Amino acid sequence: MPFDFRRFDIYRKVPKDLTQPTYTGAIISICCCFFILFLFLSELTGFITTEIVNELYVDDPDKDSGGKIDVSLNISLPNLHCELVGLDIQDEMGRHEVGHIDNSMKIPLNNGVGCRFEGQFSINKVPGNFHVSTHSATAQPQNPDMTHVIHKLSFGDTLQVQNVHGAFNALGGADRLTSNPLASHDYILKIVPTVYEDKSGKQRYSYQYTVANKEYVAYSHTGRIIPAIWFRYDLSPITVKYTERRQPLYRFITTICAIIGGTFTVAGILDSCIFTASEAWKKIQLGKMH
After folding, report:
1. Residues 177 and 41 in one domain
2. Helix, strand, coil: what percent of the chain each, to 5?
3. Among 222, 81, 97, 232, CA closest to 153
4. pLDDT tens for residues 206-255?
5. 41 and 124, same structural domain?
6. Is residue 280 domain-resident?
7. Which of 145, 184, 268, 288 sits CB 3.0–4.6 Å from 79 for a disulfide?
8. Hey, CA dihedral for 152, 153, 159, 164, is it positive or negative?
């Protein structure tokens, strides 16, 4: 007797004349198809959409930066002349720079009464401070007005990613125009290294930061100390990493198969139970069951 290859068919076919269609089965089948379509579209949307996963670890991610962090500062002092405004930088490695001018620009405001300072500079990866003050002016004013508005203060690369919400410009929009004109302002910053890796593996290095601030009028034995706007910073050893990921194709196919197979199986069980109960009820009505 020749070998019949059809024996390996695990999907045996049932002749149509041995099957019985029902209204309940039709309703369940239609609902089942709509349910499968809904789950399929949901999984397809998740497969197409890029997922951003974040993790924390202890490391210095940007080792090629030479131990430097790029800083971008944009601040307006509406009641202080540009000739008096300067940027000073200090840190624990011994850096002490008064009147930093590289990559900086001063824009007069209010017909020369005020000044907008825009600067890009670098700081060492050690605790320190940079401050806007009149320390670099050739002649110190009697009563410098340090009221200000901070438009931007950011560290590292600018990340413009829709699904990443972080404190990359926590001081942006800070308004101190109603504060005491003779007061100093201390902004205490805790800088957190941040890495963003896109789907191609390219990494961008930025920094988030938290901030606390205080306002005070300082005095010494010689009298009132010249006010300034201080940004005192320290770095966190914890790095935050954001990674773009997309669901693998094999996982998408596995999920679709599970949706289709599981839905049809559950629907088949439900239809079988309803059909069996219906047949039993008919027999009871006909008096065939006691």
Report:
1. no
2. 25, 35, 40
3. 232
4. 999 999 999 999 887 677 789 999 999 999 999 999 988 888 888 888 88
5. no
6. no
7. 145
8. negative
Q: How wide is the angle at C-alpha 138 spanned by C-alphas 136 and 140, nearest 5°? A: 85
Residue 207, SS3?
A: strand
Q: Copy the structure tokens of residue 92.
A: 């624990």
Residues 98 and 231 grouped into a single domain: yes
What are the tens digits of pLDDT across the range 118-156? 999 999 999 999 999 999 988 888 889 999 999 999 999
Can you list the alpha helix ranges (DSSP code H) found in 15-168? 23-48
Return the amino acid letter for 72.
S
Task: Say what the pLDDT of residue 244 is.
Answer: 85
- Angle between the N-to-C axes of helices 249-285 and 23-48, in degrees from 0 to 180, rounded to the nearest 10: 160
Residue 11 within any structural domain of the chain: no
Q: Is residue 67 located within the same domain as residue 190?
A: yes
Q: Is the CB of residue 96 less than 8 Å from the CB of residue 139?
A: no
- Same structural domain for residues 133 and 158? yes
Q: How much is the pTM? A: 0.73
Specify whether 75 is located in the same domain as 39.
no
On whether the CB atoms of residues 226 and 146 are closer than 8 A, the answer is no
Give the range of the structural domain holding residue 128, as residue numbers without chain letter: 59-237
With a CB cutoff of 8 Å and minimum separation 6, the contacts of 270 are 28
Quick one: DSSP state of residue 142?
S
Count of structural domains within the chain: 2
**Under a CB-based contact definition with an 8 Å cutoff, are residues 84 and 134 in contact?**
yes
Amino acid letter for position 94? G
Q: pLDDT band for position 288 (50/70/90)? A: low
214 within a domain of the structure (yes/no): yes
Residues 194, 175, single domain; the answer is yes
